[in-house]
Amino acid sequence: SLVFVTLNHHALERSRRRVLPLKMESAMIIEDEEVLKEKWRSSDAEREKTTGGSTSLSPRRREHQPHHHHHHQGLSSSFEDEIMKKAGGGGGLSSSSQVQQPQRPKSRGPPPVGKTKEARESSSATDLARLEDTTRVDRLIREREQMRRNRSFSILDDDMKSEVSGAREDLDQKSTSEGENQPSVVGVDVQDKIAQAAQASTGRLIIAANRLPVSVKKGEDGKWGLTISSGGLVSALLGVGKSYGMLWVGWPGVFIDEGPDRDALTETLLEKRCLPIWLTRNQVELYYNGYCNNILWPLFNYVPLTFEPKLSSTKDMASQWLAYISANQLFEEAIMSVFVPGDIVWCHDYHLMLLPQMLRKNDDKMKIGWFLHTPFPSSEIYRTLPMREELLISVLKADLVGFHTYDYARHFVSSCSRILAFEGRPDGVEDGGNFTRVAAFPIGIDPTRFHDALATKVVQDHILELKARFKGRKVMLGVDRLDMIKGIPQKLLGYEKFLNEHPEWRDQVVLVQIAVPTRSDVPEYQKLTSQVHEIVGRINGRFGTLGSVPIQHLDCSLSFAELTALYAVTDCCLVTSLRDGMNLVSYEYVSCQSQNAGVLILSEFAGAAQSLGAGSILVNPWNVTEVAQAIDDALTMPETERRERHKFNFSHVEVHTSQAWADTFIAELNDTHVEAELRRLRIPPRLRASDLIGPFTESRQRLVILGFNATLTKKDSRSQADRIKSRNVNKIIKPKTGDVSPLHSVSQECIARLCDDPNTTVCIFSGSERHKLAKKFAVLPKVWIVAENGCFIRPPLITND
């Protein structure tokens, strides 16, 4: 006979709480029981000879010794040693189920020697009592320790190795055959390389974002060249890639028809751990420029939706929504073509709000996280969005949902409560036993990148040049995209009011405004550009002189070296965003101000205000007078106060880096997944008919209590979003009297046959109104009816007597 024994961190942790059967995930083949007993006896004898009669366990086996006695009564400690030897002991860890993380130092306490059975049982009871009386943080720390120590065990048996190899070959063929039916993702001839990349390592971090972290350009020799893109998300996750095996899935930003050219670029990207999603021009126009940038992005930044009744059929909201679904499906197909159990999938931003639900349908145990890099509006704003239910329900299929600030997380939970009628909690959203954790994870930057740049000669030369150019004048800086939410007009109007009220500063201060153009083909942005240029011209014409102007406005982006030098020489930085997810310009400015200790004027509507607010001057950008006063306070602030404020901000930026942000999210995602597994164990198992038939036939009197809704009724084939929409409509439009879910015909026949048995009593329990149930079960007069959750009870109209 073969005995299968499993050792994994889930089972070990569960058994310390209560006696549960081990979960069959990583199995080892143990020989025949009689043969093993003889081996264990000889092993004990040899151990006693070498150790002088005492049995010494390794720290790892010593920690879990009480655990095995719960599940395998009568097995000696040598059985544990035998298992640990076959499993590879505590040395080799496999990443088949978790992302590898560095191990913590093992315990060096003395091993328990010569414990009796009563002592072991007493120790186990003490451990259980201690574990039950712990906080969530302690439990998560303990579970993470188990996760690192007991990731999974290597299978050393040659026969098992051959079986696993055969299973992997089947998986190879399945992945390849599925990939061949997906020409929109990659070419057929590179599918083998994708499959090899999928099985090269498990426990990877799969990043799903709209764009890949590289810029693609074809050289003169016809070969594709890749350069790393700039941005907070890219720098954060590239740092994470040093600790985890990572694969990035996204659009490369170019349009290439199917053929050798596309396959060559796909192969080049795969070498850089990037899997491309190929979108057509029409998809990009409807999905990216349409639904993402014209509907979701404005709404999430509190810009009301615009209604244009004369839109053509190719650009209306319905077509954009279908393109949005299609694009998310492409991401799903690409991820599932390389996904291996144990991988973590991290979806980013509003472009992929449907992706968590699509992935969850493929694998219920997949680790899925979703993070939003923009603000999430209040429920009053979000509820104006068409397809609002579909987006929320899909995001809730993720294990962990992250936002930059607690306010955004609170708005999301409130929207789920008000629109979906789900239970909102401070730490997440619950729906019928399914819990999605919602938390705030403020992103940061990589400060060492700026520190290293400041030490280079090219940056120092730029600093000397800027100091000579602005000698004798205070320098104020604004770095923004030319966007309607960045508050550039409000900044300029506040600066104009300051110059008007303080004429002594007109020749002593200059505002350098870098406005990077975006979406210059959109009429709203063209109008904004004209408005900004008009204000800049008016201020320079009114307060400028032949030798200087109060504003130097640039409609372009600067190189990294030039921008770093400008950060370093600036005395004051103005961030007046009307809405901003975080705004990392403020972080970059603080990181470059270790010598100058400049002042940061920060909008209270930027996410960074909740992180850097204590060391900044917070303003309401809509209050022009307040902005002007803040500029005066910043320029006249004593040096002691400036350095005290900068000290606070600088320490925050140095600690809360982009690397720390990503590590914290992934660690929390692992903890959340562990909690979800523990919650599933508390769900009662499905009742098996075989366990019920025997006692039912042997008993003399039987009482059968049946629920009504979702038990005896026909299954609703509509999607969850459609059911919620119908429920919301019924809150306003009262259904007709007697309108309850139809009774399933098979259920009705079975209940009637049960009622004909004189020794069986059938009771229908429901929360519906009594007159509705009485009408529904008029065809079953022999049943008891308990209506409105027990408030009313109706005995049978006809009895078998």
Commentary on this structure:
This protein is of the alpha/beta class. It has 31 helices and 23 strands. It has a 9-stranded mixed β-sheet, with helices on both faces. β18 (599-603), α24 (609-612) and β19 form a beta-alpha-beta unit. It is elongated.
Topology (elements, then pairings):
Elements: E1 3-6, H1 9-17, E2 27-30, H2 33-51, H3 59-63, H4 65-71, H5 77-86, H6 117-132, H7 136-149, H8 158-180, H9 191-200, E3 205-211, E4 214-218, E5 224-228, H10 232-240, E6 246-251, H11 260-271, E7 274-276, H12 281-300, H13 317-338, E8 344-348, H14 355-362, E9 367-371, H15 379-382, H16 388-395, E10 400-403, H17 406-420, E11 423-425, E12 428-431, E13 434-440, H18 447-454, H19 457-469, E14 474-481, H20 488-501, E15 509-516, H21 523-543, E16 551-554, H22 560-569, E17 572-575, H23 585-591, E18 599-603, H24 609-612, E19 617-619, H25 624-635, H26 639-655, H27 658-681, H28 689-698, E20 702-707, H29 720-732, H30 745-755, E21 760-765, H31 770-776, E22 784-787, E23 792-794
Parallel strand pairs: 3-6, 3-8, 6-7, 8-9, 9-10, 10-13, 14-15, 14-17, 15-16, 17-18, 18-19, 20-21, 21-22
Antiparallel strand pairs: 1-2, 4-5, 11-12, 12-13, 22-23
